Amino acid sequence: MTTARQRATKLVPLIAAIGVTAFALTGCSAGGSSEGGTTAPDKFSYLSFAENTSIQDTLTALSTGECSAENEALPLDITTQPQASYDQQLQLLAGQDALPVLFASGNTPQVAKDLNTGGKLVDVEQALADLDKSDAIIPAAQSTIDALYDGEQYVLPTEFNVEGIWYNKQLFAENGIEVPTTWDELVAAAEKLNAAGVIPFSADGQDGWPLTRLVGNYIFRDLGPDALQKVADGEAKLTDPEYVKAAEAVADLGAKGYFGPSVTSIDYMTAMNQFLTGQAGMFYMGSWALANFNDPAQNQIGAENVGFIPFPTVEGGAGSADQLAANVGVPLALSKSTYSDDVASWLGCFADNFGSSSLQNQGVITGFKVNTPVEDLPPLTQEVQTQIDATTQSVLWFEALFNAKAATTSQTNASQLVTGAMSPEDFMKAVQADIGN
Amino acid sequence: MLVYTLVMLVPIFWSLGYTVFEGNPIIGFTFVGWDNILQLFTDPKVGDALLFTLKYAIVLTVGQVLVGYGLSLLYVFWLKKASGVIRTLVFFPVVLPTVAVALLFQALFAIAPQIGPVNSLLNFFGADSIDWFASGATAFWVIVIMDIWRSMGFYAVLLYAGLVDIPEEMFESARLDGASGWKLVRHIVIPLSLPVLFSSIIFSINGTLKVFDSVLALTNGGPGNTTTPLTLYMYQTSFTYGEYGYGSSIALMLTILCLLVTLFIFRSSRRDLTKG
């Protein structure tokens, strides 16, 4: 007993030393926001998601074309990082005050918000105003950025996507289905397709987000465009009955088998293939999929057979179908610590030419004005562009205003919601718990 | 000692220090005292991850060691000198990259876009296909089967090395005394291979408590968090959610768990050996 006590007494200073060392080590590294000065960079470094090649290709095209003078002064240097570990890489670089000149702003809007709070991002609105290019960003994209980043503008919209339900015109005609404008009509259309042996909705259940997009859209149509802002602000909870109703509506589609067998195992490309080979009648997706729809090698039903339906209204709901769900793709941010005159010149050229170059070379619609008219756009792309031009108010997606934890919980549990493994109440409860309001 | 301090002790103490902070390198760190440790006791996801980790560790340790032991007995008593080729073949999955093995098992148990061999077999016998990755219960068994297949060769070789060390004379005298088959295994082989068996169990339990790559590659912890072990939850918390402090607290919990389990096994082994 005495020996044990003596041993314990000897251990106390050791444990105390360990504690002090640990605290000192961590304390030394606990940097956080630093408002350092500007260091002129010697290259226009761009850090991209490895999976996203369209921005890299557009930048490369600009560097040898419209922005060759800027590229001569400050050569473009592209590095990539897989999307799965991208946020971690940004955290490391930000911690060392070594952010690249231009970079994808992370997997969730929260990452850019945190960087901005730490004083590490260029105020893009001010920078564009200084260059006399305040009108470079189209109003619809501006509205989406405002909604995403609490009214501030520190990102560049390298895409502008609208989302909705794409449908197979031929399958609709063969089964006597009119284009649905209400949720009940949508369910009725799904019922007819299912009865005809066609998968009503093709959906990527493995990633989950195409399923939670349906929940989010239902909420916007039923409760109005500010419904999820209220959740983010703590004025409402996802566990409130009117929010749970949206999860119930989507779970009900799953219970009826409208997502086809084994939705949990369907990944993004399989879902795309199901729609483009005529196995599925409808496909909720963003306009970034136009590249697939316009590719004859992938699209076996033909681009002329693909139609777009804005997410339908919910009867008696406060939202309307012209409030299209929209996003700005992979928004880019500029590092404050490397923002020099040469970088400003690059930004000016970027603002003038990115929209038209991306549309011309990649077929991607961006949030920038198309200053040089692009000829011979595919009809489907033209149709979406018209839809975007007519959009006055957009809504976000289900997880847009949630933190990374709640977004992950939502997306990883989505397939369980539609297979019935998780009840709508439990699904909303799990997401709400991680929102933490 | 300097190298050891730099590469082992400094990161450990550093991580320990994070447990009393919250934040990340972007937003900075704030001192929160015991909040992170207390959160471990109220976070239901920690409970789920801990349960999954323990269930996985127990099932896999039993599976790995039993199958490995069975194979090693097969090598020593039945295949004898001809066991070389079989040993190499069974060991082969150990050297394969985890991601490749995970892709293989995803294809084996697939239901979409194509029906995999396992479901085809079920269909052949008149049963319906199963979406193995749609529920945590079935996904768990796919992970277990994959990891046993991947590691049984290692444990078979480890235990084989222990078995060949048993002097041949022991078997001969036991046989002269009339022992054979199960009796021989029960009274001679198991007692004499106990030290290497315990080593295998310690290896296995510590490895399985820290399972990460196979789960990440096969199910990514899903669906939901039904196949999320503590290690994956720690990784997500630190690097996906940017909560370094809470992530370090989960790491501390895992370290204590590994220490306790190892101590428990050491104590049990000491007691058993003195009895034997």
TrEMBL record, chain A:
Keyword terms: Signal, Transport
Family from the record: Belongs to the bacterial solute-binding protein 1 family.
Protein name as annotated: Raffinose/stachyose/melibiose transport system substrate-binding protein
Highest taxon of the lineage: Bacteria
Pfam families to which the protein is assigned, alphabetical: SBP_bac_1
InterPro entries tied to this protein: Bact_solute-bd_prot1, SBP
Record PANTHER family: ARABINOSE-BINDING PROTEIN-RELATED, OSMOPROTECTIVE COMPOUNDS-BINDING PROTEIN GGTB
Residues making up the signal peptide according to the UniProt record: 1-24
UniProtKB/TrEMBL annotation, chain B:
Entry keyword annotation includes Transport: yes
SUPFAM superfamilies: MetI-like
Name of this chain's protein: Multiple sugar transport system permease protein/raffinose/stachyose/melibiose transport system permease protein
Keywords of the record: Cell membrane, Membrane, Sugar transport, Transmembrane, Transmembrane helix, Transport
Organism expressing this protein natively: Agromyces terreus
Cell inner membrane is among the record's keywords: no
Gene3D superfamilies linked to this entry: MetI-like
TM helices/strands, residue ranges: 12-34, 54-77, 89-112, 132-163, 184-205, 244-266
Domain ABC transmembrane type-1: 50-265
Subcellular location field: Cell membrane
Gene Ontology CC terms, in alphabetical order: plasma membrane
Highest rank taxon of the organism: Bacteria
Principal location class: membrane
Topological category with respect to the lipid bilayer: Multi-pass membrane protein
GO biological process terms, semicolon-separated: transmembrane transport
Family: Belongs to the binding-protein-dependent transport system permease family.
Classification via Pfam families: BPD_transp_1
